[in-house]
Structures are given as structure tokens and as C-alpha cells.
Amino acid sequence: MMNEYITKPEILAPAGDEEALSAALRFGADAVYVGAQQFGMRTSPKNFDEESLPRAVRSAHELGKKLYLTCNILPRETQLPQLPDFLAFAQQCSVDALIIADLGVFELAKKYAPNVPRHVSTQAGIVNSETAKAFYNMGADRVVLARELSFGEISAIRANIPKELEIECFVQGAMCVSFSGRCLISEYLTGRDPNRGDCSQPCRWKYHLFEENREGNFYPVMEDNGGTFLYNSKDMCMIDYIPELVKAGISSFKIEGRAKTAYYSAVTTNAYRQAVDAYFSGGLREDFKTPELIKEELEKISHREYSTGFYLGTTPGQTTSNGGYIRHYDLVALCEQECDFGGIITQRNKFYLGDIVDVLPPGGIPFTVTAQKLVNENGEEVDSTPHPMERLELHCEKKIPAGSFLRVRKKTE
Q: Which of 9, 16, 36, 409 to pair with 48, CA 20 to 30 A apart?
């Protein structure tokens, strides 16, 4: 099904702290979504406090970008009294939208932050047009659809809702084994409530079988020698399906990962920025294929085995027997200053003289250089970079733009 109108989608990037925010904006995000110190679904990142949140909004707005604030937990009764001040502060900071899952919070936001658009979180589980329209009639500007929908279902929803109501969908990142993130396994096993932002991710743990009458003896239920991962979802990656995502009528391509690094935000944001721009600059051709150079970037971040989630209508093998991450590259440095000889860098991981260094510049097109000379802050030439956060001169055959991320392929590969 082809929707009657096509719009260039927003690239919406995650930011768990100011470093990730800067990286996402530098590498092409149209908007970022962040959490505050409370009422968000990710408690593990640093998030943003009363000083850093206004600063983050200013940083985005100075570049003509938007910042959305999560308020998407399911609050308990004792948390309700703090919500009015939180919502009023969000409006005072001029955030561009609030992402909300709970109906009560949705109504409180209308009262205490009336000038802030409201986006309905994926945790509301919207899977049909009637629910989307109900939220629209209540004042929603955007709905983040449930992750369990296919292209055909999304297209049908788009065709049956007001044009003014935007659709946002996840296109990249970790998946939850439970429906749209509604899970209680963490609460049962650790007392940490996933629906209030404190998931301990027990779906990623290894499990064994115990026999009732043989206390202390366990029996592996093997998928492979690494153990059994009963609930462990693959990561989503839709970089090969840019035309289909656009034609489905999705307004915003959302990247999961507020608990992840600035490097992750930069790489994923840049990949979807480059892919979408290539598709639109090429005239929306039916035979468009995402360039291999762009697709390869998503292999340079730590990730679980990739899948297409529910988009294709089926989910064979959505869980994976590998509980760990796939890591082809190590982030080794961030370039602070471009120089005629290469650049001044800050070390993140050890690398060596003579290594082939893969550079991702803010312009988005990666290139490689050879580490021809390394000079430490004492002016001494060194053979490697063993000291965390050390500043060095990297001499190589090309200038390295400030803000670039430097990677080296893992030695074991």
C-alpha cells in the first residue's frame, strides 16, 4: 500500500548525556530525545538535571534541531505529586515535545505544560488507527507505534488517521522480548521495575534447568556451548529498508539507545542521515539500495545479531543464542583539533604506531589513515597509546576534522 503523500522523515537520535547529545547533533540528527533525572524509562544513563537540560535545549535550538523529553514511566501514586513541577519545568526549558506513555500523565501535561506538544510513547502499545485517533482527539501531536507492526499495518494506520498526526517508529537498536517493552521479569527476579526505568535486563542472562529433587545440581539446556538464552532478542536494523519505511508514511525514524555511548549515537545517527539523504537526493528511485559504505558503519558499533523485527510480518529467529555483543572495531580516540599533520586526539582505547585508523568525520563519510607518528604531551614520540584519556598528536597522511571518531579493527579478526 502506497500512502498518498511522502515526507522526508526526521532522524531522531538518543542522548543519555551531554557528550552523546553533542555527537548526535554533530552527525546529523534532526532531533534528539533525552531523559531527566526522574520520570524516564532509562535510569542507567547520566540523563539531564536542572542545569544541563536547559543547556541541552539551547544546544539543539542553536542548530535548528529539536529536543524531546521523556516522561514515559508508569508512575505510582506516590510519584504523582512531583509531576506538576516537572512538567512545568519542561515547558520552562522550551523542550519541543514530551514523550508520554501514561494517560494520567498525558492529561497532567496538558494542564501543567500546555504549550508543549505531546508524543505518545511506544509503551502505550498503539497497533491500530482507532487508538491513534483517540490519542489525537485528546491532543497528541505524534504517536510512537508499537514495535510489533509490519509495513502493511503501518501503511494502513497512516492512511486512516489525520494527516496532521505524525507517526514515529523505531528503526535501529535493542529489542525487548515483551510487547512494546511491557515486562515484569526484572521486577520478579531483582525487584527493579522495568516500567519505571530500572530494568536489569534478565532477558540477556544465561539460564539452566534445576531438577526438583537434586538440590544444588543444574542441567544446561544447550543452544550452544555458551549456554541458553531463552528471552534474548536480536537488535533491530532497518538500514536496508529506507524506501519501505518512507513509503509506509513514517514521519520520524527513531534510534534506540539512551543508555549507550556517544560513539553509538554518532555512528547510528550518521548512517540513517546518510541513507535518507541519499534516497531523497536520488529522486526516491524504486531500485534504491543503501550504499555498502553506509551499511558497513553499523557493523562498527557493538551490537547483537541484527534482525528486521516485525516489519516484514514475521519474526523467525527473533531471539538469539548469543548473549554477547558483536564487536568488530574498537573506538580508540576522539579528535579534538584538526592539524596540518593530522590531528590532536584524546585516547579512548589503546592502539599502536602503524595501525590503520578508520576515521568517521562529522561530514559522515569515513576514510582511513595510517598512524605514522604518535607524540605525547611531553613532546615524546611513542609506539602506542596505553594511558586513558591521554592527549596526543596523531601524524598521518590526511587532516582529521575536529569531532571525528577514530576506530581500529579488532586485532583478533
A: 9
